[in-house]
Write a structure and sequence with these properties.
This protein is α/β, with parallel strands linked by helices and about 400 residues long. About 35% of the residues lie in helices and about 25% in strands. β1, α1 and β2 form a beta-alpha-beta unit.
């Protein structure tokens, strides 16, 4: 079959490989080019140990505090609030105890596939040297938050996720640059991170082309359903295929809506600053619990990023937020270079209120498959999603129950 994939970020590229494995003719399509969106500048974690959705009873209690600070870990641009209200309403519903537990179950099932799928693809593509299995740390400066984390550790252990709580001395033995303010951490020895998100996504993209995939740089404006769906763009561009996969991240919603699925997709604008050549400060990724940011030792340099800003796709970046992240990090890490020596970036995470991606067939066309809305876990879940999409295209039962990811669950 000929399969067109709309979106050439890490999810679309991963799907291309899974479909090439099964002998399909693959056409990747992207309006900007490969690795244009979050695949270019994300934190680079394969965070398969994370099982908690953002929408939770706890986060609802914290939202008023976050919103009081326009440069804090969560903010909404005032002009965007009216447009965001329907999304926020669904976020509140997803934070109730019942839906929250269902989201955990769905997220845990997908995360369980994530690292094995990544390692298998990296080996097949001869890119294993770009994945570093050095573990990860979730570090605490607050004793109450650290004590509360033991309940999460129990859940993770019950799911077969290795994690241990370590004290401040053991933490600084692993990462000496961390401030004495840190009381300890949750240590995940199996967490992995990648060399550099852009480098690895482009390497997989080139590997897909070498295997026979084709690429078109064009912005798809509509998909006409049928036995052979037709993709159309401006200036008369048109392409018919046997199957279509929509993996366009934050730009997927209009295409899905035209196919009968009004998915509550919005964008979390994430910020970071990277310091090229700074490679010795950390040995493994560190999440600064309660502070809203992470640090990742990429091969290309140290990256510090995080925060969530709701402001849509059109508003310009507000790098005062990035500076705030850096200032907070500099109070907790010894040896950071000057902010002015770094490169700032802002990207659009495709966010669904319940923190689960949309994976499934379109309402008006079973020949069209959705694979978008991965939020903070696009890099992590890309190859697991690809295996599910390949099964759907082939008419096989997917490796896990995909009902939690249905486009009709809203």
């Amino acid at each position: 079959m000929k399969v067109a994939i709309v979106g050439a970020g890490i999810v679309g590229v991963a799907i291309a490989h899974a479909l090439l494995d099964e002998g399909h003719e693959v056409l990747l399509i992207d309006r900007e080019g490969p690795a244009f969106g979050p695949s270019r500048g994300n934190a680079g974690w394969i965070a398969h140990t994370d099982i908690l959705p953002i929408a939770s009873p706890k986060i609802l209690r914290q939202v008023p505090k976050f919103l009081a600070d326009p440069l804090g870990p969560l903010s909404i641009r005032p002009a965007y609030l009216p447009k965001l209200l329907p999304w926020l309403a669904r976020f509140v519903l997803a934070s109730r105890p019942g839906p929250y537990e269902r989201s955990i179950s769905g997220l845990a099932a997908l995360q369980r596939l994530a690292l094995p799928a990544w390692l298998a693809r990296a080996e097949q593509a001869r890119l294993g040297h770009l994945i570093h299995r050095k573990g990860g740390l979730y570090a605490f400066t607050d004793a109450g938050a650290m004590a509360a984390a033991t309940e999460l550790v129990k859940r993770q252990n019950a799911l077969g996720i290795r994690v241990e709580m370590i004290d401040g001395q053991a933490l600084r033995a692993l990462e000496p640059a961390l401030s004495p303010r840190f009381l300890g951490a949750a240590h995940h020895p199996d967490t992995a991170h990648i060399s550099d998100p852009l480098e690895l996504t482009l390497a997989l993209f080139e590997a897909a082309l070498e295997r026979g995939a084709q690429f078109e740089r064009v912005g798809i404006e509509r998909i006409l359903p049928g036995e052979q769906p037709a993709l159309e763009a401006s200036h008369g561009w048109r392409q018919s295929c046997d199957r279509v996969v929509i993996a366009a991240g934050a730009w997927s919603r209009p295409l899905a809506k035209a196919l009968g699925d009004d998915v509550p997709l919005d964008t979390e604008r994430g910020y970071n600053v990277s310091f090229p050549g700074v490679t010795g400060l950390f040995s493994r990724p560190v999440a600064f619990e309660g502070h809203g940011f992470v640090a990742t030792p990429l091969d290309s340099g140290l990256r510090i990023g995080g925060a969530v800003e709701f402001g849509g796709l059109d508003a310009p970046p507000n790098h005062a937020r990035t500076r705030r992240l850096y200032d907070k990090a500099s109070s907790l890490v010894t040896g950071l270079p000057a902010f002015e020596s770094g490169r700032t970036w802002m990207g659009f995470r495709p966010s669904i209120p319940d923190s689960l991606p949309v994976i499934g067939k379109a309402r008006r066309s079973p020949q069209v498959v959705y694979a978008f809305g991965h939020g903070h876990y696009g890099m992590t879940q890309s190859h697991a999603t690809a295996d599910i999409v390949a099964a759907l295209v082939a008419g096989r039962r997917p490796p896990i129950d995909i009902a939690p990811f249905s486009p009709r669950r809203f």
